[in-house]
Every structure is written in structure tokens, then in C-alpha cells.
Amino acid sequence: MLSMVTVVLPVFAIILAGFGARKVGVLGPHASLDLNRYVSYLALPALLFDVMAGADWGNLDLMEFVAIFALSSTVIYGVTVVLCLFARNNLSDASVDGLGAAYSNTGYMGIPLCLLVLGTDSLPAVTLAAVATTVVLFAIAIVLVEAGRQTQPRGVAIVLTVGGSLIRNPLIIAPLLGGIWAAAGLPMPMALDSFLDLLGASAAPCALVSLGLFFADSSKESTGRIWSKAALLSTGKLLVHPALTWVLAMFFGLPPFLAGIAVLLSALPTGTGPFMLAELYGRETVTTSSAVMLSTLVSLVTITFLLYWGGYAELEIATR
């Protein structure tokens, strides 16, 4: 157990460093936005492109992995939306809440955590999971939010909104271009490889610091009712989501290494994507940010237990 805590703790320590730097004024009010843009538009796309360009696409198990991970996330999202609608939430708010229970922090926490626990062999699968999370869940959520805001159906406008948001997202475009590069069999020039390595190496620490800055700026307005709702969303995210993924992985016979990645990614806390969508559309930003914060704090315990009881040390050894 102590060894697993040692693996997980540095990830949360970097988040705490960003939180503390903002609270004591070392970093200003715009630091979170600027660092987040750096990660989203430079560092993380470079890492994703590099991973995808060097991936072995002859492994069909990756496609099954993506299907299982996307299916479990979509089911959790759909069930949460339905339950919120029964609780008399409107469709737009229910859509954002659904993301709070299903949107794993695959980019900011999944990549650094899987690198630490399972090594570089896990990165192609993690990258595909991050793309699936962004493409599938964001597309569905945007459609439902837009539908909830319209008094009259505007199918073309909704399609254009979804398509435009996906086309402009570098976290989708970069791995897509990397996959095309790999499919074309193009060699990687040494200078480009070094550039991608240097830029991509900064993605994980900067992303985690940015997450800490985000928490420091969004921890002031939460009430008891909001924390209760955030606790329900966090329970779905940290317990129900990985349990469903495990059942699907066992049912479809996913190889142990990929099954372990899928369950670990499903057990991650809520990512910042739901907050960004809530802020964009003026929905429940305080509830969403509280769910992100609470699920991240509680995941220090839940992920540690998952790594200990899930046999991840044996999975890492098997890949050497």
C-alpha cells in the first residue's frame, strides 16, 4: 500500500503546489487561464501527436479498448442525465451534470498517472481514451445543452456548433494528425522528434499545476446543497463508473493490461471539461467546479486503493 501511495502522491502534490502558489499570490489571477492555454494548445497536443505517430496500429485490441471505455462513459452520462431530469432539472443543466459523473480527467491526470504506474506502453491507449472522452461526451453534451436552450429545433445550427468545436480542439486534431502520420509510414525527423519530446514533457506537470490554480480560484462560493450534489456526482464518477467499466472489460474479454488502463481511467476524478462547458453556456459553474474539486480530493484515497487491490504492480512488471 505504501508503494502505491508513493506513486499517487506526487501527482496530488503538484496539484497542491499550484493551489498554494495561487493562494499566497505567487501566481496571479490569470495564471490558471494562461497555463491552461499553454497545456491545451502546445504541450499536450505535442505529446499526443508524438504518441500517436509512434503507435503500433496493428493492435486491434486498442479499438476494443476504446469502444468499452466510450460505452461505459456514455452509459454513466446517460443515466445521470435521466436522473437529473427526474429531479426536475432542465435539459441543459442535466447535460452538464452528466459530464460531472462521466467525464474522466484523462488529459490532465490520466496521462501522468499512467506514465508513473504503467509506463509508456500505456500511452497509446490513454491517448485514444482522452480523444474518445472529448469527442463522444462533449459532442453529446453540446447537442443536449443547445437543444435545452432552444425554443424551436435548430438541427443545422447544433450540428455546426458541435462540428466547429471539435475541429478547433487541438486535443482532437493533434492525435488525429499523429495517427495519419503513423498510417502513412512517414519517418520522424530527429529535430522534430526532439522538439516534440521537449514540449510534450512539460504537459503533465504544467497541467497538474493548472488544475491546482483552477481549484484555488473556484473554492469560494460552494454551499451545502451544492456540495451534496457534488458528492452524488463524485460517487458516480469514482465508484460506479470504474465498476461498470470493469464489468464490460470482463464481459468482452479485454486483455488484462488494457482492462487495467480502462478501469484506472474510469476511476479518475471529473476533468475540467464540464466546468469549461458550464462556463461557456452560463450553467451551474459552481456545482461543476465543486464536483471537480471534491472528486479530485477523494480520488487520492480511491485511486490508491484501486492501484493496491487491482494488481497494477503486476501489470507494470508484465510490460517490462
TrEMBL record:
GO terms for biological process: transmembrane transport. It is found in: Cell membrane. It comes from the Bacteria. Its main location: membrane. The keyword Cell membrane applies. Keywords: Cell membrane, Membrane, Transmembrane, Transmembrane helix, Transport. Belongs to the auxin efflux carrier (TC 2.A.69) family. This is Transporter.
